[in-house]
């Protein structure tokens, strides 16, 4: 079963650079309640194909909550969806879109923020920065790495924001064409002056790996170190059209008994949007997301395949077994993060929170 999707009209297409376009959506009145994003979240978009149906892709929001809903898409080599969007999408067109998802968002908008972006990874970073400048009180330091000056997305917007908030916002542009690729030592030296900030990192995998390693060496606590992670979806969260690319995965039926898991239904206590609900009939062979949906709980998700972090929750008590995990790293697991769409109970009681 797919979550509710909405057909959104394209209000504008803005060419940010030769390779990146921002897509501005009009949200109809009956969908506004569903489209109330947090800064740094993403949308899942159905990109159409006359031949193959659709490609489901996740694109980060560059807009701040309260602004017109906008994602920014950069072409990728041989990327069907990103190239189709940049080549074909025009104002007046429509796309099917799932509501905002993701946990790459500040818990405290008043906190001091250290934001690292590489290339198109600036998209959720500028969403966070715009929101924090508008609603928060903290200081914001941005390290933005690009290939060259022509590759800088939102160059004029960053300049405008820095001019309007000289006492709160510092933006440092790092250009590979001038300075070479940033090294771990250079990233560590930059971050060393901001050890009490909350750090957010988004960009190409090598950039994120180097930046996160630098933060770890500086002993940034896990609770203040955030890394965006989701991948192109192999499955189809929209439910009624075959996707462009399908990935067939052989997954064995979970045998919770051999893992020492409960033979009888487990008890689940889950917190979502400030409300805590308890159920005592969670079947050990049913993923948590599917169980909550059957109970009428609108738990977040996007891909259902273990390929994104939209359904992530924090485990507070007990344990679960994830059938598949393509996105969480060991640090996330150590911090209690699990994927609701893949989690089966292995203890009699499980407590968790989506906040």
Automatic annotation (TrEMBL):
InterPro entries xref list: 2Fe-2S_ferredoxin-like_sf, 2Fe-2S_ferredoxin-type, 2Fe2S_fd_BS, Beta-grasp_dom_sf, FAD-bd_FR_type, Flavoprot_Pyr_Nucl_cyt_Rdtase, FNR_nucleotide-bd, MRET
Top-level lineage group:
Bacteria
Q: Which Gene3D superfamilies match?
A: 3.10.20.30, Nucleotide-binding domain of ferredoxin-NADP reductase (FNR) module (3.40.50.80), Translation factors (2.40.30.10)
Q: Which GO terms describe its molecular function?
A: 2 iron, 2 sulfur cluster binding; flavin adenine dinucleotide binding; metal ion binding; monooxygenase activity
* Cofactor(s) for this UniProt protein: FAD
Q: TM segments?
A: none
Q: Recite the UniProt keywords alphabetically.
A: 2Fe-2S, FAD, Flavoprotein, Iron, Iron-sulfur, Metal-binding, Monooxygenase, Oxidoreductase
Which SUPFAM superfamilies does this chain map to?
2Fe-2S ferredoxin-like (SSF54292), Ferredoxin reductase-like, C-terminal NADP-linked domain (SSF52343), Riboflavin synthase domain-like (SSF63380)
Q: Report if keyword Flavoprotein is assigned.
A: yes
The chain positions of domain 2Fe-2S ferredoxin-type read 266-355
The chain positions of domain FAD-binding FR-type read: 3-107
Tell me if Oxidoreductase is a UniProt keyword of this record: yes
- Return the PANTHER family for the record: 1,2-PHENYLACETYL-COA EPOXIDASE, SUBUNIT E (PTHR47354:SF8), NADH OXIDOREDUCTASE HCR (PTHR47354)
Protein name (record): 3-ketosteroid 9alpha-monooxygenase subunit B
Question: Whose protein is this, by species?
Answer: Nocardioides albertanoniae
